[in-house]
Amino acid sequence: MTTSPPTATPTSQPPAKRTLRDYQSDQEPRWCPGCGDYSILKQVQTVLAEENVPPEQVVFISGIGCSSRFPYYMRTYGIHGIHGRAPAIAFGLSVVRPDLSIWIITGDGDGLAIGGNHLFHILRRNPNVQILLFNNEIYGLTKGQYSPTSPLGKVTKSSPWGSPDEPVNPIAFALGSHASFVARTLDRHPTHLKETLRAAMHHRGAAFVEIYQNCNIFNDGAFELYTDKKTQPVHALFLKEGEPMTFGPNNQYVLHWTGTTNQQQEEPFIVFRQDDTPDTLTPFTTRNRHLAWALAWRLHPVSVPVYRRDGTPTEESITLPRPFGIFFQEERPTYQEHLAHQLEKAREHIQPIAQLIQGELTWTVS
């Protein structure tokens, strides 16, 4: 629990507009100077303030890791759980208190190593929670060992000859777990981060958000291609509902999905120039699970030719970008709704306790 518990606003009066201070605890955040966690903390507090969410109706639940200090810095209710078990705690709370705004704070190590099983099940069950996975591709709290998301060949204290493991793809993991909301954002893009968090908060069901978070001590610059102002336009693709998938210094390139799920096809994406785009180009949508899967799993950072409108390649080539934004979103019943329906059906068959005790399924031992 936080050291300064929130107090309820009298229901007889309309709540005043809240500010950041209403969500800031009396604990000084203790992360390394320059850590991306500071940015995430501020944007979470900003979203809660802008949405005027009563602090006494918010709970932050974490596991173990640098990111898991988060509940101490929020003037809300909070639970600092054990390694990887934040989803299990949050799931139980969401069942008994569906009225609360429940946030799970985890990292790539906490959530995808020891906590992978729990993360998988909470995503498929779809309770009404927000899951923020801070991904810095390293174990920071334990001083720089390679994590489940570290690139193959990553040299660390625990892999001096390079990591021998294929990295976990968090977005693909969430999609494969049948998550109803899957997104990716960055700590160094506060506007995008804030709006992604807002969308996750308004989603009905389990919202999974991967956040690229820079660990400037043990893995500095891991995401520099996507955060540096000079390289971001070329290497980052920001997905927007109903709009073409454009990128480049002047948005002059358009990513086109061929719409195929054929695993034998080498690349399911083609790049056109904005001024030479075919009329059949379809805009991006968060409702297409096949497209989301292709963006998450098959959009490799490889050099591809830029095509003309008639489908012939030009002499120009470009590296495929990495997508950010909401990959997939669907509305489906939450776990709480399924449970409420079951309880309603069960009540139709309730019998008096005396009838149960003296019913047909009793016997006498002589």
| Class of secondary structure makeup | alpha/beta
Total beta strand runs:
13
At the fourth CATH level, what is the homologous superfamily of the largest domain? Thiamin diphosphate (ThDP)-binding fold, Pyr/PP domains
Report the CATH topology name of the largest domain. Answer: Rossmann fold
Radius of gyration: 24 Å
Spans of 5+ residues with little confidence (pLDDT < 50)? none
- Biggest sheet character: 8 strands, mixed
- End-to-end distance: 54 Å
* CATH class category label of the largest domain: Alpha Beta
Helix content: 25-40%
Mean pLDDT: 92
Describe this structure as you would to a colleague.
This protein is of the alpha/beta class and 366 residues long. It folds into 2 domains: 20-227, Rossmann fold; 240-327, no CATH class. It contains 11 helices and 13 strands. It has helices at 37-50, 86-96, 108-114, 116-125, 170-176, 190-202, 224-227, 232-235, 289-297, 335-347, 353-357; strands at residues 58-62, 77-80, 101-107, 130-135, 181-186, 207-212, 236-238, 245-247, 253-257, 269-273, 303-307, 313-319, 322-329. The strands form 2 sheets. An 8-stranded mixed β-sheet has the order 2-1-3-4-6-5-13-7, with helices on both faces. It has a 5-stranded mixed β-sheet with strand order 8-9-10-11-12. The termini are far apart. The mean pLDDT is 92.
